[in-house]
Sequence to fold (107 residues):
Amino acid sequence: MDSDLVVANQMIKYLKFGFGFATDEACYDIREGRLTREDAVWNVQEYDGKCGPKYIQAVCDYLSIEEKEFWTVVDKFVNRELFEKDENGIWHPRFTVGIDYNSENVN
Fold:
């Protein structure tokens, strides 16, 4: 059960700090020579911040809350300098992975 919670935790970390598990692992792999920066950027773009519905549901079940309440709480902690919410309620990064970030350059 706790491994299901880790996936959701990493998604929340991503929304709060702009990096998640894929970034953590990519950094280790680059330093150890197991991954090129270019491959790491692709992996991070593809996987960081992703969390399937079954993991969200596992957290909700564990906390005995509805999914709507889960997202209400998560939304309070999203870093709005790094992410913006679309008309469907989905958070999207304002940054591009692999490009230097400067908060003054955010749209």
User: Anything to note?
Assistant: The first helix runs from residue 2 to 17. The radius of gyration is 15 Å.
